[in-house]
Structures are given as C-alpha cells and as structure tokens.
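[step 3/7] inverse_fold.run input=structure_tokens len=247
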C-alpha cells in the first residue's frame, strides 16, 4: 500500500509493505492528520490552539490531547533553559514544533501497529517513522536541494530534521526572541517522532550548544551541519548504506 496526500501544510507519504493491511487503515491515518490540522493549527482562527492562544480557553477547558501537547512544550522549554519556547517574545502561541511529531507518531502507533502493520514508513514532510526495517532514510543537504548530506539506517524508530531551507528563519531562540541562525541543519533519531521532532527543533534553537544537548537526551543520536559545511555527529548516529530507501 502506498499513499501520498498534502496534509498540515506538507506532503505526507505512507508506505505499508504488509499485504494483509486494509486500505481503510491508510484512510484512518490521513483522517487523523486532517483532524489534527483542524484542531491544532495556529493559522486556523477557530482551532482549539488558536482559541487558547487568544486566551479564550483556559487549561481546564482544553482537550486531553492539547493538554498533553502543552505538557510536552513545557518539558522542552525547561530542558533548554527557555531556548525552545512556543510563546517566544513578540510572537504568538505556536506549538507546531511539538504537534507535528506527536500527531504523526500517534498515527503510526494507534492506527498502523494496532491494525497489524509490521513493516511501514510514514514520512511527514521529511520527518519519518519506520517499522520493520532496515530502512535507508536520506537527509537533504541544507544548501543544495538536489543533494543529500547523509543517509541513515533505521529499523524501528524515527528521524526528524530542523533547518532553514524550507521556511527561512522560522525557528526562534526563545531566550532572545531572535531567529536561530548558528546552524544550517540538525537531524535527530529517537525511538519516537514525539521525541525526535521537538528535540531537533530545540537543538536548532539553542545553536551549537544544542548539538551536545540533543545527543545527551535518552536514546537520541544527532547529525548537525554548521555554516561552512562542517559536520558534527554523535558516535552512534546510524549511518547506513545498501538497504531499502524509505518512501
């Protein structure tokens, strides 16, 4: 089974190699992601996130899902000394750095594995969850759109990259309120995308110090590109060749 749809502002591709998984499972995955976009997009005035950001909904009025997301946001704000902040100075409430990975991981866990999928790849705008590998995942070069800066091998887990090449200077250091520009890209692998996605964003916001911080998080490995092309990676980063490429 293979499916590609545009959801949450980016292409999402699903590949399931198990012949016994029905097409309705893919329907459910994409329906869940569309629901998340409706409920949690800060760009939709009527969404729960937008209403909470405007002060219209107190915490006790929020859904359990949004409370879970807010708790994750606060965890990473504290862990980074405020560098990761979904309410940076001079900007509105925007938890997308947590919502994306959380939503895609939920789709993988609750819908795919619950339906019996054993070998699959769910790729949301370059942030990937895989199962039943090995899978080979390419990481885009931050300065050359038609090139990869590395490939990595994953069997079960997730990988996320934060960079400036798609959306410009959109990642802000919450300690200063200014765009984070000291790194070109940060790629993080972890057991789940709920971890990999915000940790990659947080590390990018922190700058060079964020590389060691991300590598110190339980189960995480890091690959970072600095201005001038210098590369830093943790010892256990799963560089791999000669295995199937993820969808």
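[step 3/7] decode complete -> sequence:
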């Amino acid at each position: 089974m293979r499916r590609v749809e545009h959801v949450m502002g980016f292409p999402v591709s699903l590949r399931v190699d198990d012949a016994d998984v029905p097409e309705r499972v893919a329907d459910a995955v994409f329906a869940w992601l569309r629901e998340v976009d409706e409920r949690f997009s800060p760009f939709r005035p009527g969404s729960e996130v937008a209403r909470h950001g405007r002060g219209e909904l107190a915490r006790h009025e929020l859904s359990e899902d949004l409370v879970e997301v807010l708790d994750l946001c606060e965890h990473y704000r504290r862990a980074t000394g405020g560098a990761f902040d979904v309410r940076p100075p001079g900007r509105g409430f925007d938890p997308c750095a947590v919502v994306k990975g959380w939503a895609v991981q939920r789709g993988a866990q609750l819908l795919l594995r619950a339906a019996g999928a054993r070998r699959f790849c769910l790729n949301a705008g370059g942030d990937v969850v895989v199962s039943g590998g090995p899978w080979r995942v390419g990481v885009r070069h931050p300065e050359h759109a038609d090139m990869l800066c590395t490939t990595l091998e994953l069997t079960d887990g997730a990988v996320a990259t934060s960079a400036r090449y798609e959306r410009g200077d959109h990642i802000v250091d919450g300690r200063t309120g200014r765009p984070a520009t000291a790194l070109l890209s940060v790629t993080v692998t972890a057991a789940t995308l709920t971890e990999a996605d915000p940790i990659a964003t947080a590390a990018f916001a922190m700058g060079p110090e964020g590389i060691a911080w991300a590598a110190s998080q339980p189960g995480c490995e890091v690959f970072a590109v600095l201005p001038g092309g210098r590369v830093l990676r943790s010892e256990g980063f799963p560089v791999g060749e000669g295995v199937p490429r993820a969808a």
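[step 4/7] annotate
The chain has a mean pLDDT of 91.
The chain has six helices and twelve strands.
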